[in-house]
Amino acid sequence: MKEGAERPRDLLLRSQPDVSEAVLVAVQDTGIGLDPQHVEQMFEAFYTTKAEGLGMGLAICRSIIEAHGGRLWASANEPQGAVFQFTLPAGRDETAPVEPAGQTPVV
To answer: Per residue in 16-33, pLDDT tens?
Structure first.
């Protein structure tokens, strides 16, 4: 959502359980939207629509999500913008370290 747009710029993040016992996360914006003919191309390495873009961001995101058993996709947000959604398995990763109760990890 570029600065200077004459319309309101909204960003909405949602999460909810998915029917497949996964967690569904949706990131919805009111930006310029998506070209429906190139939605799948957006996830290919080095594909970009931005003059300053490298075309790696969405390809990296998809590979990380898929490596964790999830899936990532995009669609149009009507009447304006895009929605990026991903799912991840809801089960706990038994190999992940357990954080002590009451402490928040620093990222």
So the answer is: 998 888 999 999 999 888
59 lies in some domain: yes
The domain that holds 77 is classified in CATH as 3.30.565.10
Which range marks the domain in which residue 28 is found?
11-89
- For residue 79, cis peptide bond before it (omega within 30 degrees of 0): yes
* CA 100 – CA 107 distance, rounded (Å): 16
Give residue-wise pLDDT tens across range 43-86.
898 888 777 888 899 999 999 999 999 999 999 988 889 999 99
Answer whether residue 68 is part of any domain.
yes
Q: How many domains does the chain have?
A: 1
**38 residue type, one letter:** H
Note the pTM of the prediction, 2 decimals.
0.75
Give CA torsion, residues 26, 77, 30, 14, to 10 deg. -20
